[in-house]
């Protein structure tokens, strides 16, 4: 169960090698979290992440999970929930893709959409059903400010995150009053392996800063978290720009 401040004792990470997810796990383990499940494709990176968290004092287990195989999600997540209640599910998997390349190779664009949206819809619904069955818990979904308005530079990724964001908001409404809390996190440009080599955008942030915002959001039982917070006003303005103006922006 969660403590008096809304922080979890048990955590399931979907996307167990995500830098944001691991920064969040480290932060939560330093507070109260004692049991961590890392779900992802079996790999040395997943094993290393588990060992790192064990070194911080957590009991850590891994489970095979593939976002691109929705038919396996019920069995994979069912294995976790069968071992006991989960206070927090952090949906953190996703791929950025290569916009210029993916426009020329539609199957690559489809893979971005299937990972970021279709796989997330499947995993989130399976997790939400299990959380609802136990009567408590939080589902944190990592969205992106890229989903607020599709930009020429990354509209494939942005559109997948827009779909995920809308889905997560609707799921939160559907679960309101059930004891299950859904929180959507919208980071801006995050300096990480996924963005390595890319030009840094204004108001860039770090995995650690996103983790801090997630912890605060859990304590407050927020429904939407922007990282950094200033992006909320910035994206509100961007969202309402006339399309003819928006097209001329260097974005």
UniProtKB/TrEMBL annotation:
Gene3D superfamilies: NAD(P)-binding Rossmann-like Domain. The keyword Transferase does not apply. One of its GO terms (molecular function) is oxidoreductase activity. It comes from the Bacteria. The keyword Oxidoreductase applies. Pfam families: adh_short. This is Decaprenylphospho-beta-D-erythro-pentofuranosid-2-ulose 2-reductase. InterPro entries: NAD(P)-bd_dom_sf, Sc_DH/Rdtase_CS, SDR_fam.
């Amino acid at each position: 169960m969660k403590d008096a401040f809304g922080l979890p004792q048990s955590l399931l990470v979907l996307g167990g090698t995500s830098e944001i997810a691991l920064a969040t796990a480290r932060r939560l383990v330093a507070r109260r979290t004692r049991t961590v499940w890392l779900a992802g494709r079996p790999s040395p990176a997943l094993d290393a992440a588990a060992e790192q968290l064990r070194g911080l004092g957590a009991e850590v287990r891994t489970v095979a999970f593939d976002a691109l195989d929705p038919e396996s999600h019920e069995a994979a997540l069912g294995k976790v929930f069968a071992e006991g209640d989960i206070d927090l599910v952090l949906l953190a998997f996703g791929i950025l893709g290569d916009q210029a390349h993916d426009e020329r190779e539609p199957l690559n664009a489809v893979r971005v959409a299937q990972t970021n949206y279709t796989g997330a819809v499947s995993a989130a619904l399976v997790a939400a059903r299990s959380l609802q069955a136990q009567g408590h818990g939080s589902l944190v979904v990592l969205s992106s400010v890229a989903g607020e308005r599709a930009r020429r530079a990354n509209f494939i990724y942005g559109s997948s995150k827009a779909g995920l964001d809308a889905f997560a908001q609707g799921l939160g409404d559907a679960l309101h009053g059930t004891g299950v809390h859904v929180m959507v996190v919208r980071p801006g440009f995050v300096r990480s392996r996924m963005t390595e080599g890319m030009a840094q955008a204004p108001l860039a942030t770090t995995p650690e800063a996103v983790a801090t915002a997630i912890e605060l959001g859990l304590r407050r039982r927020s429904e939407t978290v922007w990282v950094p917070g200033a992006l909320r006003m910035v994206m509100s303005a961007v969202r309402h720009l006339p399309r003819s103006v928006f097209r001329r922006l260097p974005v």
